[in-house]
């Protein structure tokens, strides 16, 4: 909550960006969303990457998700080239079998009764929640001390949920700054997006940045979302809560956005977003319309905005790579706060890992 945070100035002023933020890694001692649960089919292996670490996901015989290092300790072959057999993941090269703890439990050409070799893959804490698969890539002993964000709207019958995924050829810091940066409404003006943003509150803790902006809307979006009956100008407050490593954004009395960021490498990121909209429609009428409204709102409202954002984010990354020493100027203190937190979290992990 903002009142519990260190309150920061909301004044806009020029500050030089420290480019180190474009190079740092993650603090792995948090839960990260890595895949949609429906993409992990029974009997299949789903490879994912989180900050240069390849992980193999699979479901065991009880339909529980397991996550192990995607490298066989025998020959180094990727485990996703193999198969799932009962509770085991089986390497496609020699048929070595491993359980969800990464332990070798069988070799097809091994003598019966003979002790198996000490071959171990790294296992990862994993859970399935809110239609997503979450990985804790850090110290497994710390997994119970953290949790994915709470999403109370997930089971709220009055909310229309719209899942949305995206891929970016950019460092996760650039993607995170885009989410915090309400001032880029200029980019979306042809879509009748928001305008005249004003940063009104800003606060920080060791793990979060919370900003509040006052923004204005007009046009067909105000009618679609129930802001205004005639499409006239409406002013709302939007709160953007960056709870490392995820976002919780809320538009006053209208919507909530839970955006989970997956850092893949220094130039690749993904996001998994759950958007909840409170439409001016009674629940009895909303229920039969859900399946029709989800793709309609996705294509009319989200994808056009997202495609414009991706173009700018990837351009920013491309030009950074051309000249990493070039200095850039930022005026939004919320962006500077985001950068500071990302670097601080990485440095904190590095200091405890050594």
How does this structure look, described?
With 354 residues, this protein is an alpha+beta fold. 21% of the residues lie in helices and 32% in strands. It contains four helices and 20 strands. The strands form five sheets. The chain has an eight-stranded antiparallel β-sheet with strand order 1-14-15-16-17-18-19-13. α1 (172-180) packs antiparallel against α4. The protein is globular and about 80 Å long. The chain starts with 5 loop residues before the first strand and ends with a helix. The model has no long low-confidence stretch (mean pLDDT 91). Its EC number is 1.14.13.-. Residues 31-135 form the Rieske domain. InterPro entries: Cholesterol_7-desaturase, Rieske_2Fe-2S, Rieske_2Fe-2S_sf, VanA_C_cat.
Write a short abstract of this structure:
The protein is 21% helix and 32% strand. It is α+β, with helices and mostly antiparallel strands and 354 residues long.
Secondary-structure blueprint:
Layout lengths: L5 E2 L7 E2 L15 E5 L9 E5 L2 E7 L5 E5 L13 E3 L2 E3 L6 E2 L5 E3 L18 E5 L2 E5 L23 E9 L3 H9 L14 E10 L3 E10 L2 H5 L9 E10 L2 E6 L3 E11 L2 E10 L5 H40 L6 E2 L2 H21 L1
Antiparallel strand pairs: 1-14, 2-20, 3-12, 4-5, 5-6, 7-8, 8-9, 9-10, 11-12, 13-19, 14-15, 15-16, 16-17, 17-18, 18-19
Helix pairs in contact: 1-4
């Amino acid at each position: 909550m903002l009142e519990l945070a260190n309150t920061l100035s909301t004044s806009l002023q020029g500050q030089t960006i420290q480019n180190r933020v474009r190079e740092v890694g993650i603090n792995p001692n948090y839960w990260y969303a890595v895949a949609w649960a429906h993409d992990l089919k029974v009997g299949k292996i789903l490879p994912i990457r989180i900050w240069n670490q390849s992980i193999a996901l699979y479901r065991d015989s009880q339909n529980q998700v397991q996550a192990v290092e995607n490298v066989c300790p025998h020959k180094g072959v990727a485990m996703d080239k193999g198969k799932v057999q009962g509770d085991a993941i089986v390497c496609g090269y020699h048929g070595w079998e491993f359980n969800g703890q990464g332990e070798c439990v069988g070799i097809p050409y091994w003598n019966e009764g003979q002790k198996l070799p000490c071959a171990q893959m790294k296992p990862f804490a994993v859970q399935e929640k809110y239609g997503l698969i979450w990985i804790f890539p850090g110290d497994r002993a710390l997994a119970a001390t953290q949790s994915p964000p709470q999403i109370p709207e997930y089971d709220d019958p009055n909310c229309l949920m719209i899942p949305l995924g995206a891929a970016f050829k950019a460092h996760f810091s650039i993607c995170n700054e885009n989410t915090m940066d309400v001032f880029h409404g200029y980019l979306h003006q042809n879509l009748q997006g928001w305008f005249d943003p004003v940063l009104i509150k800003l606060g920080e803790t060791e793990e979060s940045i919370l900003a509040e902006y006052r923004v204005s809307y007009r046009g067909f979006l105000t009618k679609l979302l129930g802001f205004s009956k005639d499409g006239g100008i409406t002013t709302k407050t939007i709160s953007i809560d960056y709870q490392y490593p995820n976002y919780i954004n809320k538009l006053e009395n209208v919507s909530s956005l839970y955006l989970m960021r997956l850092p893949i490498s220094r130039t690749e990121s993904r996001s998994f977003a759950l958007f909840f909209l409170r439409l001016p429609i009674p629940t009895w009428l909303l229920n039969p319309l859900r399946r029709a409204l989800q793709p309609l709102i996705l294509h009319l409202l989200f994808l056009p905005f997202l495609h414009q954002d991706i173009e700018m984010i990837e351009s920013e990354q491309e030009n950074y790579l051309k000249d990493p020493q070039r200095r850039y100027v930022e005026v939004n203190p919320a962006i500077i706060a985001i950068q500071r937190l990302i670097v601080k979290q990485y440095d904190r992990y590095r200091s405890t890992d050594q």
